[in-house]
Structure formats: structure tokens, C-alpha cells
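Tutorial, part two.
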Amino acid sequence: MSMKYSFHIMKYTTIIFIVFLLCVSSTYAQTIVLEGEQTIKANTHTPILSCTPIKITKSMKISSAKGNCNGFWIQKGSETIHRFDNFIDPIGTALSPGTYYVYPYLKKDTKKANVSVTLKANNSG
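Running the prediction step on this input gives:
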């Protein structure tokens, strides 16, 4: 076997290995952030909910939650499936495939709140 031939085999083997590692690491590092907001319309005192829904195709778990609110709720489609009054209890909560929305609870005497929930793929540890 020539030295040049051995070099090409090693080069292609290395490239294949790197591609494999990238595929595996992207599977294990998948995160999605779900964000929502609630404001009170000044003249009518009507709550306005805002969230760009996310669709997940595999089970994910909540890894963190933060915001300037008194907790939040999560909807799957139009059904409320979780309610939390803090940012600690939701950690580890699993969400099955589907379309999700998140909305914050307003603090007393406030007119605007937001929440951010980070989801990680179940196999991400």
C-alpha cells in the first residue's frame, strides 16, 4: 500500500468521524426557547397575550425558566397543560411532541410581563 493511498484513507476516515460526531452532538445538544408575554391594554384593561408557538417533534424537558412575572402557564394547542407559580418547579417537566405556547402571570400592579422557557431534548441529560 502506498503512502499516498494511506494518507487519503486516513483523511477520509477522519472526515467521516468528524461528521459523525457533529451529528451525534447536535442530537444531544438540541435546545429550543419558548417565549411569551402578557400586557394590559391601557384604556380597556384587557389582557393581551403574545407568543410565537413552537412545534416540537420529539419529547423535550424544561431545563430553565425565567422572566419578570409571578409564574407562567403552558398550553399545548388551546389546552392549558401546566401551571407554575415559580421558576424552580417546572425544571425537568417533560413535554411530548406538539405545538406549545407559554404565557406569564402578571405581578400585582404591573401591566407587562414576559417569560422565557428553555427546552432540551430528553437525551441531552
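Helices lie at 3-28. In part three we will examine how such features are distributed along the chain.
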